[in-house]
Amino acid sequence: MSDMNFGQALDFLRTGHRMARRAWPEGTWLVLRTGYPDGIAVNANSAEAFGVPEGTTARFAPYFQLCDTYGTLHAWARSDEDLLDADWYNVDPHAPLGARRRL
Predict the structure, then answer these.
(1) Least CB-packed of 22, 31, 52, 90 within 10 Å?
(2) pTM of the shown model
(3) What is the pLDDT of residues 36-45, one digit of tens each?
């Protein structure tokens, strides 16, 4: 499939595809997480951050998550270029996390 704009990429993200930009380093890709609309028990890390007891049920809205070239997952800090450029493409859904190894 040829490159697409972000609107087209978003349609794929909504159906569970991994997407990337040609401008990003090899092995970097994006997913749209569905969140937890019915709630999920928060772990110790989240409990500390939110100031609630571990195990408290919290609802999470959908969000974008970026996997970098080292396989580390991040919240996606989108840029104007990410939204306006038309260099988005599908990523192999079976590709391993990260294309590079930390030294």
Answers:
(1) 22
(2) 0.83
(3) 999 999 999 9
